[in-house]
Amino acid sequence: MASNCCWAERCMVGGAAGTHASTSLPRTSSTSATRLFAGRPWRRRYCYNTESGLGRAERELAATVASRLNGCEYCASVHQGRSKDEGGDAEAIDSLLDEGVTADLASKLWNAIRDAAVALTRTPFAFGTPHVEALRAAGLDDLAVLDVVNSSAFFNWANRLMLTLGEPDVPKRYR
C-alpha cells in the first residue's frame, strides 16, 4: 500500500472483509451509521467508563472543543453541560464557548486537550508529536492520550453528521 494513502485506508488494511480492522464494526451506509450513532450503546461504555484513561469531564471537554470549532451549537451546548456535570471547570467551559477555541482554559491539562482537539478537528495531519508530548507533560498516560484522540475525532465526525441533518435546536436546559 502506498505510504501516502489516507489514515482511514490504513486502518482498513488487515480487517475482515466488510469490517473496519480496528473495531470489527461492519462498514455501513450513512443511514445505518445514523442508526448506530443514534442508539449509542458504545457511548455508554466509552464516554462514561472511568476505570482508566481520561476522566469524563475531560472527554466531554474534547467533544466540546470539536463541536465549538465545527460550529455545532447543539452539540457544543450538550457537551459543555456534561463536562460541567462531571466536575469540569465551569468558568473554563464558559470561556471556551464565549471566546472560542483559543480561550485560555486556565489549566495545563485542559489547554493541552484543547490544542489536541483543535488540531484533530481541523485535519488529522495537524495533530502530531508536539500534541502528544504536551498531553503527557500535563500528566496523561497513553490510554488517556488515546481517549483525547478518540473523543475529539469521534465527535468531529458526529458534528459533521448532525450539521447535515438540519438546523440545530439547543436544549432549553442549556439556553
Automatic annotation (TrEMBL):
InterPro entries xrefs: AhpD-like, AhpD_core, CMD-like, Uncharacterised_peroxidase-rel
Secretion signal span: none
Superkingdom per UniProt: Bacteria
Residue ranges constituting the Carboxymuconolactone decarboxylase-like domain according to the UniProt record: 50-114
Name listed for the protein in its UniProt record: Carboxymuconolactone decarboxylase family protein
Origin species: Corynebacterium jeddahense
